[in-house]
Amino acid sequence: MRALVIDHSAPTHLSMAEISDPIPAPDEALVKVAAVSLNRGEVKGATSPETPDGTVIGWDAAGVVVKAAADGSGPAEGTRVVTLGAAAGWAELRAVPAAMLGQVPEDADLGAMSTLPVAGLSALHVLRRAGQLLGRRVMITGASGGVGRFAIQLAARAGAEVVAISGNPAQADGLRALGAHEVHTDPATVERPVFTVLDNIGGQQLVDAFAALEAHGTLFSVGRASETDAVLPPEALLGTEGRHDRSIRTFFLLSDPATDFSADLTWLAAEVAAGRLDPGTSWRGPWARHDEAVQTLLGRRLHGKAVLDIN
């Protein structure tokens, strides 16, 4: 089969290659991949010299089951699915355990479905950890990115007053259309405290977002798009204006390998297919154009998700 593999001699450290088909474990379905979506973390990781040539990366993929799991778990042959994994998604075939795939409505666009696993699940699971959001202020940094866009929509549907942070003022109208009540370019300019923060940026934005938390508030560190460290001064840790007992929690979607994501992926797929969630696909093309997609993502010219069609 064909796959996108790590190739450190290529400009984007990726190239097309012929590799062996995956051999599914008894609890894995074999999926013919139709589309994949890109995440900044995996694309950036591809440039690391520690990742060997020939490695197949890719977290998000959608397609059709061509061989059901031998142990009877998961969907039957012919079922349309969206899949998650720590690697091996950017290929014509992918072996996936039942816990890592969700069923997709028959009329759904598989390209749109491929945007869901990392971005959609991360937003959903962080907001669940935040607790009851009805009537509470929720700040989302990196709001125009994949996780940010899903988080705005889900938080607004949960009854939160959403404060979106985006460095690009041109994104403001679009973020309000998704459900943001306020849009700022910098968390330091937010006047009223927030109950929780979903931070995708790190660095100084994390520091400023933490300062915006109300007493007993929590900041969830989800991403580090700034690629800089956050240094919290002592006065920030001590609290100001009576805002004490605030906390920072880290988040990694695949931290627990026993987590079953199938129900959440199926639900997210149905919401996108019904038009109740906008995946925000802003770049799409055949996987032969993977270099263009990667350069757009790493060059910070992408707002939303990039999708490659496997053809």
Automatic annotation (TrEMBL):
Any Pfam family: ADH_zinc_N
Keyword vocabulary terms for this entry: NADP, Oxidoreductase
Start and end residues of each Enoyl reductase (ER) domain: 9-308
CDD domains: MDR4
Record-linked SUPFAM superfamilies: GroES-like, NAD(P)-binding Rossmann-fold domains
InterPro entries: ADH-like_C, ADH-like_N, ER, GroES-like_sf, NAD(P)-bd_dom_sf
Keyword Oxidoreductase: yes
Regions that span the bilayer: none
Name under which the protein is recorded: Zinc-binding dehydrogenase
Organism of provenance: Streptomyces siderophoricus
